[in-house]
């Protein structure tokens, strides 16, 4: 029981040490720091081949603006921006699979359970 009364105080002390100690150590090492040379970003290469930029085609369909993203000529993602409302994305996880909606109102996912099998 006595330990339970001391537990909040011990936690408070540990938290204070966690915030106060790094502040003291940062000031003491300021004179020993040295600047490193600037490192350029890595090139866009995957397994020895340069990475291609996606081709973006913007078209209007009624009051909606549709941005089509293609890589190697294959459509893999669309951004649909309606005139009123939030934009949403349609993409494919599998090139031959269905379009998946990642938007403010994704389609309702209804669970399917097999109860009886004949």
CATH superfamily descriptor of one domain: Protein of unknown function DUF2782
The major pleated sheet works out as: 5 strands, antiparallel
The ordered H/E elements are HEEEEEEE
Principal-axis shape equals extended
Low-confidence stretches: none
Radius of gyration from CA coordinates: 28 Å
Mean pLDDT figure: 77
> What is CATH's topology name of one domain?
S-adenosyl-L-methionine-dependent methyltransferases
Helix count, DSSP H or I runs of 4 or more residues: 1
- Tell me the β content: 25-35%
Tell me the name of the CATH class of one domain.
Mainly Beta
How many beta-strand segments?
Answer: 7
Q: Which structural class best describes the helix and strand composition?
A: alpha+beta
Distance N terminus to C terminus? 61 Å
Q: What CATH architecture label of one domain applies?
A: Single Sheet
Query: What is the strand arrangement across the widest sheet?
Result: 3-4-5-6-7
Helical proportion, percent range: 10-25%
General description of the model:
Helices cover 23% and strands 29% of the residues. By secondary structure, it is of the alpha+beta class. Among the domains are: 26 residues; 54 residues, Protein of unknown function DUF2782 (S-adenosyl-L-methionine-dependent methyltransferases), CATH 2.20.130.30. The model has no long low-confidence stretch (mean pLDDT 77). Strands 3-4-5-6-7 form a five-stranded antiparallel beta sheet, with no helix packed on it. A two-stranded antiparallel ribbon has the order 1-2.
């Amino acid at each position: 029981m006595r330990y339970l009364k001391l537990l909040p105080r011990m936690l408070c002390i540990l938290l204070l040490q966690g915030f106060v100690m790094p502040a003291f150590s940062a000031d003491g090492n300021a004179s020993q720091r040295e600047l490193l040379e600037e490192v350029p970003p890595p090139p866009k290469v995957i397994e020895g081949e340069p990475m291609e930029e996606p081709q973006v085609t913007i078209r209007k369909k009624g009051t909606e603006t549709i941005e089509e993203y293609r890589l190697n000529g294959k459509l893999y993602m669309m951004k649909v921006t309606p005139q009123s409302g939030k934009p949403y994305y349609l993409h494919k996880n599998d090139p031959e699979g269905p379009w998946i909606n990642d938007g403010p109102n994704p389609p309702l996912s209804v669970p399917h359970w097999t109860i009886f099998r004949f």
